[in-house]
Amino acid sequence: MSNQPSSYLGGPAVGNDIAIQKYLQLMARYERLMEISRQLNSTLDLSTLLNRIIQAATELTDTETASIMLIDPKTGELRFEASSQPSMTAGAMEAIVVPIDNSLAGWVVRHGEPSLVEDARSDPRFFRGVDETIDFETRNLLGVPMIAHNRVIGVVQAVNKRPGAQWTEDDINTLTTLAAQAAVAIENARLFQQSDLIEEMVHELRAPLMGLHASTNLLMRPELPENRRRDIIKIIRDEADRLTRMTTEFLDLARLESGRARLETSQFDCAHLIEETVEIVRQQAAERYISIHIEAEPITLQADRGKVKRVILNLLTNAIKYNRDHGEIFVRARALQGGQPSMARLEVQDTGRGMSEESQQHMFEKFYRASDVAQSTQGTGLGLVIAKRIVEAHGGEIGFRSALGVGTTFYFTLPMLPPETAAQA
User: Fold this and answer.
1) 56, 128, 215, 412: which has the fewest C-beta neighbours closer than 10 Å?
2) From edge to edge, which strands make up the β-sheet containing 78-83?
3) Which residues contact 367 (CB under 8 A, 6 or more apart)?
4) What is the rounded distance in angstroms from the CA atom of residue 140 to the CA atom of residue 142?
5) From CA 66, how far away is CA 85, in angstroms rounded?
């Protein structure tokens, strides 16, 4: 009989050490989960929030990637809203509707409970459309419901355990807890966006409504001269038009920020779209002797044609509005070299008054209009905000450069077909 202690032979002491190690790892995981929860509650920006959730999901489950699908409150469709997979661009996400009845995520939504799948390809519920769209291979995954106010609002999925790691019950519990916290945070962010927009909208509506009220009171005076009466009627008409534009753009912005405005992606010639959009404003430019020049490479964009047209039209309208008489506008489009996915850069340059440094700091704020031009030009102050949301929904970026007395250039990027692919199409 050996006199060595049982721990030397791999007895109870070794088992206790393993149990203690697992306990410490579990405690570390829950401490990290509490820290992530505080981070989620520290922001009301929906985009930032979604990115934090998917980063936390991959970290806590030790997986390759993670994604969030939310139920569209208007259509009931299940759509991707965020993913840590690089090939899952905004355009790719917008193109995919996950079927509720024939997908693992749909099963999670229907049953309101987690689903762990060790071999995705052999599961009849697996929806292959996502992998085929983004050229990805899902080997295994864990999906859990996001539940807020006793209803499922979406699904968090952690995909592909890293080599050598195994799914555990702790993974299910951890991701379920994260999803519950995420659901509440997402609902709070949505409510904040709506209330924030409504408050700003009501504030902006007051000025034209007060103007309409004052004008109608003046019209009721019998001693008012006829020429003055005509001027007031024109003011009322202009303010009514402004209110119509403002409410329309407000609704459009609300849809974009809530995720209800979906991209209808197609492939189209960039130069043709630019020429088509320029024709809309050419007469407006000609009235002030402003010439418009187009310099566009042959590019096939892969985007929502109608929404891209709206961005270009907004930038062209501003370029005319803030230009000088006999000025010039240059509209350019070129392919950006390298990078995945392939992107194109479009820009609209004017030779106008330019912007002060103060104005530049607020350019993409809702309802902002520079103090030096606010009285001399008509606008809602939402056009550039909407343009920014549209570009970012495509996975692109928008920016500008400006100098007083020189002019302003707005530029943005959009996904395009690689030249070799476009040539084969």
Assistant:
1) 128
2) 97-98, 78-83, 63-71, 151-161, 141-148, 115-117
3) 200, 203, 204, 380, 381, 382
4) 7
5) 7
